[in-house]
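Hypothesis: this fold can be encoded by more than one sequence.
Test: take the structure tokens below, design a sequence, compare later.
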């Protein structure tokens, strides 16, 4: 790989969400107080490929687990060019 760089990475973080006396309304319909609160663990893996200086391609996978919900996957891919 002539001047190309592959950078794998991992991420892990803990977040906390607080709610109090709130409500959710979508298109004028009130759904009451949201139940998504408390601790959330998120983790992910990704790869960043620097093809040539200034141009990179990346892909990322992540998941999230909390008391009230589970997000088994989230996928992101893209390209970036800086001049």
């Amino acid at each position: 790989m002539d001047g190309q760089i592959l950078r794998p990475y991992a991420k892990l973080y803990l977040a906390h969400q607080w709610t109090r006396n709130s409500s959710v309304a979508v298109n004028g319909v009130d759904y009451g107080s949201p139940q998504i609160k408390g601790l959330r663990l998120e983790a992910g893996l990704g790869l960043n490929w620097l093809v040539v200086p200034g141009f990179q391609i990346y892909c990322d996978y992540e998941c999230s687990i909390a008391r009230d919900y589970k997000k088994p996957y989230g996928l992101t891919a893209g390209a970036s060019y800086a001049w």
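The chain has a mean pLDDT of 87. The chain has one domain: 5-18+36-81.
Hypothesis status: open.
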